[in-house]
Amino acid sequence: MDTIRKALWLARLEMIVSRKHYLNLVLITGIYTFFFQLTMPAYLEENIFVFDVFLIIYLMTITFSTKPKGFQYQKMNDELYASPYAVMLNQLPIRRNVLVLSRFILPYFAIFASIPTALTATYIFSPELQDAIGPLQLISLIVIWVCFSFSLGGIFPASEPGDEIKRFTFVWSFASIIIFFVSLYLIFQVWLDTGFFKWTIYLANEYTILSIIVSILTASVVTWYWYHHALKQIQKIDYLQ
């Protein structure tokens, strides 16, 4: 509990500094909600892949949309990329587990605030989505996407302590993004003949409770992995090189 309390205190300091940037979160949530509501009828009927692509981009944008420049992951020297704020905290007498835990709190808070708002607003203004899923099942759908965002977006706070990135790493990262979206298209559009978001609607409708349980367990395991990855990085990297 002491670790959590201290991590929350660090996160609170960051939130005070970043409070103006939370307008970005409101703006992004509003823009994507409008986009989802506008394209939902065509998506549910024709499985438009662009909808899924923009949904993933939205999820990834949330986690760093509230961070000022000095808090963002950026180039520190020739090969080191990190958050200057995280590097500064590492020079202070702060336990590393507290430091690392504090990096996850605000990104996850942003996810928890934005996704339920966007999906609920889309549901209210989209009769087509109301026909596709009931109010109780909508809760399951929201949990699925919040947990998926925790799993996917956890890479950003996990990277803040630092990464030594070489040219091959850039190439591999770019290739991984392409592979991810190609796989998403082949699995859902070609093989299952549906959309990714539409498939999660099916899961929420048919396996409401099971989807919630599996999503929470998966997000917990993946977040645990990202947390320990960040701990390993902060112990390994020489910030004074």
From TrEMBL:
This is ABC-2 type transporter domain-containing protein. Keywords: Membrane, Transmembrane, Transmembrane helix. It comes from the Bacteria. The chain crosses the membrane at residues 21-42, 48-66, 105-126, 138-156, 168-188, 208-227.
